[in-house]
Amino acid sequence: MRKNFFIVAAAAAILLSGCASKKELQSCRDENKSLTSNLQSTKEDLAGKNARIASLEEQLKAQQKALDEQKYSYAKLQESLDKSLTNASQNNVSIDKLVDQINESNQYIRHLVEVKSKSDSLNMVLTNNLTRSLSKEELKEVDVQVLKGVVYISLADNMLYKSGSYEINDRAAETLSKIAKIITDYKDYDVLIEGNTDNVPISKTNIRNNWDLSCLRASSVVQALQTKYGVDPKRLTAGGRGEYNPLQSNDTEVGKQRNRRTQIIITPKLDEFMELIGEAPETK
């Protein structure tokens, strides 16, 4: 009886022990399942985070590349700006020089205008004085003009010379004396005596052609101004143009008469005039 009791107790203990092991096993299984689920969730979360990190790294690389490009562009822009500033500075210097040159040129132009105005004024006074000194009869045979700043006194050949000759006649003496007085008063002027003829050939044994005649007539006037009226010979020049500087056609008698003339051309002394216009005003 007692033996049976021990057997029953052992069996009960075994049963109880078996029940406890199954519960623990199930609990372990449940915990393992939960842990496995957590592990999978953690792996998935880790994979998502890794993907996010990779994406952020790509974005960082792209932004770094963009930053590098911007730095390069900035460097280029700075280089371009530096060149522009340098060129602008140089251009400003060039513009300043150009403005100075323009101002100097304008000043020189004003100087030339003043010189020309002075010359024109002197010529006008000279012309007026000469015209007033001549009589009405003389003015019929003497033409006085100012052309391009030069005074031209044109004398008809029949008033100056003996017919068919280069010798000056007595009738011209008074007129030449008045012209000589004007020439003497205006010492800063040079005088060119220029002979002109028509195209009719000359038939004189001592005169070869119209070139000779025009030069001889001019020379006669020069020598008269020098010897009779005291004009400084250094201011005088004699020249002839023959028949090659006509005022009118030689087809008519009136035209031929107009072409047979001697011109007294009064101009500012060339060397002094060129020196005057060549002196540009000093720049301040």
Distinctive features:
about 280 residues; 5-stranded mixed β-sheet; 7 helices; about 65% helix
Provide a concise account of the structure shown.
The chain has helices at residues 2-133, 136-139, 157-160, 173-185, 210-227, 253-259, 270-278; strands at residues 142-147, 150-156, 189-196, 236-240, 261-268.
Protein architecture, described:
By secondary structure, the protein is α+β, with helices and mostly antiparallel strands. The chain is built from 7 helices and 5 strands, in the order ααββααβαβαβα. It has a 5-stranded mixed β-sheet. A hairpin with a 2-residue loop joins strand 1 and strand 2. The longest helix has 132 residues, at 2-133. The N and C termini lie far apart (150 Å). The mean pLDDT is 79.
β-strand number: 5
Query: Which consecutive residue ranges, at least 5 long each, have pLDDT under 50?
Result: none
Alpha plus pi helix count: 7
The arrangement of helices and strands along the chain is HHEEHHEHEHEH
Largest sheet: 5 strands, mixed
Q: What is the C-alpha radius of gyration, as a whole number of Å?
A: 61 Å
State the strand order across the main sheet.
Answer: 1-2-5-3-4
End-to-end separation in angstroms reads: 150 Å
Helix content: 55-70%
Estimated share of beta-strand residues: 5-15%
Q: Quick one: overall form?
A: rod-shaped
Oligomeric state of the chains present here: single chain
Structural class from helices and strands? alpha+beta
Mean pLDDT: 79
